[in-house]
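User: Please predict the structure of the protein below. I'd like the answer in structure-token form so I can feed it into my own downstream comparison script.

Assistant: Understood. Taking the following sequence of 130 residues as input:
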Amino acid sequence: MATRMTLTQMETLVSLGQKELAARKELAATEEALAALRNWTSQYREIVRSIEYKVESVANDVALQISGLLEAAGISRADLARRIGVSRAYISQSLEGKNNMTIAEMVKLGDALGAELAIRFRAQSEPASR
């Protein structure tokens, strides 16, 4: 014997179907977001392992240290430039990462700022990929 549904039961079924559809769409969006995050994470790891990134990180660290020494000593970029015989533009470009300073130039900067350049190697946080 066939059972007949009431209007209220049909409305409940439709409502449940709509909720399920919305939940499936939300799950699909979440899965897409998770896939995008995994992709981003993979790209990030690849970038931070690159030589270019490592060089840029060291250059930024050197620039921050020099800027800190300048500020602590109360010396302007123009004064520093005069002390080591280069243009103010050269100092600015070096601190902005536009010049690849040599060790000799960094030693001169250190001398002019009353600091000694010390270069140290340390173990990598992750082994280098071969």
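That's the full token string. The radius of gyration is 30 Å.
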